[in-house]
Design brief:
It comes from Telluria mixta. The chain has 173 residues and is mostly helical. It has helices at residues 5-29, 41-54, 63-82, 86-100, 102-109, 120-131, 136-154. It is elongated and about 80 Å long.
């Protein structure tokens, strides 16, 4: 069967129309997300796992206290991200979107199952890999995660003694 130019153009136009209709249907059935950063579901589980590894040496030993400290730090990271400009929030949202998406998570981090089931050793290995990765984009993503988590952890006055920080100067407060 020989394809003519006319048949090729008709098939192309029909395909474009089908793609446009499919895109319109998707937009209609999936409303746009709210502007700004949203941390939920698998993205929150990813951040919890990352927080647990980055501040592992400073976390309390008791399971309940440890879970509370991780949740509080995750909440402070979330608040910090909400204070960033919208473009930066979108970039962080894209990063957490990749970490939450199963195939991307497996490819980029090596974490085979969901973040809630991730072993600390696996999370530590992926963070170390990103820290020294040959791609600057992954090194930058690691630095962002690292700085957000440690900034949120040490923004809590109860953690200042561990690093010898006396707090802000009384004259400036």
């Amino acid at each position: 069967m020989e394809t003519t130019r006319r048949t090729f153009l008709k098939a192309g136009l029909l395909s474009a129309a089908l793609l446009a209709a499919g895109g319109g249907w998707y937009r209609y059935t999936h409303p746009a997300p709210p502007r700004g950063f949203v941390l939920d579901g698998e993205a929150r589980a990813a951040l919890d796992a990352i927080v647990a590894v980055i501040v592992s040496g400073a976390l309390p030993d008791a399971h309940a206290d440890r879970a509370r400290a991780i949740a509080a730090t995750t909440a402070r990271v979330h608040q910090t991200i909400l204070g960033l400009p919208l473009l930066a929030q979108q970039e962080v949202q894209d990063l957490f979107g990749l970490l939450a998406l199963g195939p991307a998570r497996r490819l980029l981090t090596g974490i085979p199952d969901g973040w809630a089931a991730a072993k600390e050793a696996d999370v530590a290995a992926f963070l170390q890999d990103w820290r020294v990765h040959r791609l600057s984009l992954l090194r930058t993503a690691y630095a962002a995660l690292h700085d957000l988590v440690l900034g949120a952890w040490y923004s809590e006055p109860a953690h200042w003694d561990a690093i010898g920080y006396p707090g802000p100067l009384k004259e400036l407060a």
